[in-house]
Amino acid sequence: MAVISRGFFGRKREENPELPPGQYLTEDFPVLSAGPTPVVDLADWTFSIQTESGEVHAWNWEQLNALPQEDIHTDIHCVTRWSKLGTTWSGVSLDTLFAGVDTTNAYVMVHSYGGYTTNMPLADLMDGKAWIATSFEGEPLDPEHGGPARLLVPHLYFWKSAKWVHGLRMVATDDPGFWEQNGYHIYGDPWLEQRYW
Ligand SMILES: Nc1nc2c(c(=O)[nH]1)N[C@H]1C(S)=C(S)[C@@H](COP(=O)(O)O)O[C@H]1N2
Ligand SMILES: [Mo]
């Protein structure tokens, strides 16, 4: 006569088609940083893209904010298994930043203030898939969440969304960044559960 309530099993994945395999929902916003939060003075802040020819395209804080800003509504998925649905950000599309950039290299190494790095194909930053985000839920991005600016690449696991982003370097090969050298997957698609390698 055991009656097992369906509710007992809680939020099963099949009830949440927005949740990639092996992920659970969280309502709060965990902070995951490999080191201390770097202090970046807006007067000194820059973001740059360096190509294989040595050419450097750079924007200071004012210049970044003068570019077209986009609102982004997206889900985010951390490899430690939390996902957050329906987050709201604003920032500058990488399509805008790459508009005047001439490169034939297919990969990018992302560099952050503080030394963090992460790698990805350039294609994953193009066509409306990635932004330099400066606000979260209508407020300037918290320093602990990457403020003043972080990369936002929500279709990959969240370690690819480098906090305190400082610049991108165009590279010929997909060399591993910080977490990728420490066992995280070279690409990191949450829908394919590409967590570790
Ligand atoms: N610069 C930098 N960016 C980073 C990290 C980091 O340690 N340093 N951690 C990554 C990881 S593993 C995750 S899950 C997210 C966490 O972002 P949050 O702290 O805003 O939740 O940032 C990513 N970006
Ligand atoms: Mo993470």
Structural write-up:
InterPro entries: OxRdtase_Mopterin-bd_dom, OxRdtase_Mopterin-bd_sf. This is DMSO/TMAO reductase YedYZ molybdopterin-dependent catalytic subunit. This protein has helices at 61-66, 94-97, 178-181; strands at residues 24-25, 46-50, 56-60, 70-77, 82-93, 107-112, 117-121, 131-136, 139-140, 150-152, 165-171. The protein has 197 residues and is mainly beta. The chain has a single domain (21-34, 45-192), classed as Sulfite Oxidase, Chain A, domain 2. β4 and β5 form a beta hairpin. Bound molecules: ligand MTE and molybdenum atom. Molybdenum atom (MO) binds next to loops. The site of ligand MTE has 18 residues, from loops.
Sum up the structure in keywords.
single chain, 197 residues, mainly beta, Sulfite Oxidase, Chain A, domain 2, six-stranded mixed β-sheet, five-stranded mixed β-sheet, 3 helices, 7% helix, globular, disordered N terminus, binds the ligand Nc1nc2c(c(=O)[nH]1)N[C@H]1C(S)=C(S)[C@@H](COP(=O)(O)O)O[C@H]1N2, binds molybdenum atom
CATH superfamily: Oxidoreductase, molybdopterin-binding domain
Mind telling me the CATH class? Alpha Beta
What small ligands are held by the chains?
the ligand Nc1nc2c(c(=O)[nH]1)N[C@H]1C(S)=C(S)[C@@H](COP(=O)(O)O)O[C@H]1N2, molybdenum atom
- Using only C-alpha atoms, the radius of gyration works out to 18 Å
Pfam family, one: Oxidored_molyb
Protein name: DMSO/TMAO reductase YedYZ molybdopterin-dependent catalytic subunit
Domain Oxidoreductase molybdopterin-binding: 35-179
InterPro entries: OxRdtase_Mopterin-bd_dom, OxRdtase_Mopterin-bd_sf
